[in-house]
Amino acid sequence: MSTYHPLSVQEAIELARTIPGHFSEGADLSCREIGDGNLNLVFHVTDTSSDKSIIIKQAVPYAKVVGESWPLSLDRARIERQALQIQHQYCPSLVPEVYAYCDEMAYTVMEDLSSYTIMRKGLIEGGVYPNFAEHIGEFIANTLFYTSDLGMNQQEKKVLAGQFVNPDLCKITEDLIFEDPYRDSPNNNYAEAIADEAAALRSDLPLHFEVALLRDKFLTRSQALLHGDLHTGSIFVTPESTMVIDPEFAYYGPMGFDIGAVLANLLLNYAAQPGWSKTEELAQREQRLLDMVPAVWNEFESRFRALWNRDLQDEMARTPGYQDHYISQILKDTAGFAGCKMIRRIVGLSHVADIDGIPDDALREAAQRKALAIGKALVRHNRSVSSIEHFMEVITQAINEIEVSI
Amino acid sequence: MSTYHPLSVQEAIELARTIPGHFSEGADLSCREIGDGNLNLVFHVTDTSSDKSIIIKQAVPYAKVVGESWPLSLDRARIERQALQIQHQYCPSLVPEVYAYCDEMAYTVMEDLSSYTIMRKGLIEGGVYPNFAEHIGEFIANTLFYTSDLGMNQQEKKVLAGQFVNPDLCKITEDLIFEDPYRDSPNNNYAEAIADEAAALRSDLPLHFEVALLRDKFLTRSQALLHGDLHTGSIFVTPESTMVIDPEFAYYGPMGFDIGAVLANLLLNYAAQPGWSKTEELAQREQRLLDMVPAVWNEFESRFRALWNRDLQDEMARTPGYQDHYISQILKDTAGFAGCKMIRRIVGLSHVADIDGIPDDALREAAQRKALAIGKALVRHNRSVSSIEHFMEVITQAINEIEVSI
Hints:
The first copy, chain A, is an alpha+beta fold.
């Protein structure tokens, strides 16, 4: 099995049998390929006579996005597998366990999460996740702290960073998030109804300036091992628990990029809620989504500070005032990256179902304009954001302005 | 020759004969080992009957500094060789040519620079180098621009950065420059006469705060392929020409670190000049050294801007105002790193002959205090430095204050 080829369903079953401690000998295994076919094959192998199951994820040597196909390194399977293992080490209850892998065949055998819902789908259906802020706060605090120069030996960190050089996947981010929305790119994708917004993005030079600074941070700031694609489609939830998956975009980058991804996707779902003629239930749902933003940040911040105070590996970082400064810079970056991620999901190549799935044209357009208003405000003000309360004020003001104008 | 062992003089001669196009068949070659024995063997192979000669530099698997010895990866020879080749590619007249190498044996065969003087020695002897600012400005502008995301493909840059993961050598910098001078470390080394200064450095928390920020930049900012140790002992000069050698500390870091190293070492030599009872000649020498600081920066800046305007690889970096902002940030970093490098050369492990070589105790102490005053001022003000004129004002003010107090 050492020369790469896409696994067949039969091969996936045979492979599943070799994983120690899962299926009993002679178990009647069945297998379905459940991937979306764009980047990976995903085999779901179940024992028909028990509740045991596993997932085998295998990378394919190309990416398909909205019909386009381009070659993509299989090394991303190794990167994803290694990132999963590191994240599982620091957050065992929040990241699936890797049971086996083969880098040549670009597959990873891991814990099955079929009992979970993809969080984006859950949010669209109005799901309530009271533990989410605590869980994701723990995930980002632990994974970012312990892979940074603060929480690990600085020489080992450099070697680890070298193992996460991820040019193919980073290029997708650099193009789709930090460039295409601001120029006339064939990758862009938006309805004629918001062509005015797209045109305004292309000519907004003060906004470009902020995006250029954020792009530079994405390109050059090797702060911690990022998940790299931490949107609500990479998070599996139940009302009680949370699992983070799919870290194939993992690389050493700025901490605010991961935190910004979480907040941006909560805000995209928020923007998808109808802005007027609300029922009481809808108003509560809106408020719940908005409240999750500071809740996630506050969980992250308090946990990150606790880790810093307990496990700091860098003597100079004990200097009074440095921790406050460091965290305030993460918050500014978080605002900027969250804004970039909201903007690209409206005018760029890849959208979110939260908004695209709104059947009514006028409501969908209003949601798009609201998301853009929040995203632009976060980018514009990112360097001056001074607290999470200020972060929320920037959002609220943008919402109020756009609700008057719609 | 593929298993590592230190070359003998006889082996060096045999190796030299194999380099195509240098020595005629049957040439009478002689060889001397001229290294200082701390990090490398350096063989100087000459043809006794012609003026032809080459250098063979071989790493040894340890470092010796002031009697201490610790293991050091031989991979630094590969890093140095590869950095030399890249720097030679962008500055062929300013970096010696690599003729041959063997990574397993950790040697590089290169152009002989015996006709040059080590710049530190030249400056100590009062040498005048009217082309130096132009040459070193070209070196730093070209090597930093073309290895950054501005001047090269951003995916290729990531792969290149992965080849320059250099934990062993970076650790020396992290410890000796960004930590030891600010704590009670057995690595520190200073005369009893300036014990008050050393104690003040250990308790100066606002200074520690700035050093912690600069240390973080050194640890995490993968901006360009740095030389990494660009002091005047790594620069060979004649009155007409300049050659940059010894990039074994090369890694992807913040641009200001290389520029700061050059300026710090000019300022260390400046500080070594007697501050009072000057002859006209000494006053001119002092002024010449001070004038080189803005001259180097201005050469760098104008060349870097020209490269940016001609060869930029990043569309978003064309945003109006971004170039000015980027360069102003490099200047701030340059000030901070220059300051850190001056401080560590006075109280840290490794000193400079410019100052340690002053025979008179009182003059040497005055030079040490002057260097510390300039270094601390640059660190303290680094984030507010707004122009090279302002940078010089910070220095001048520090000099004036210390000359009153000495």
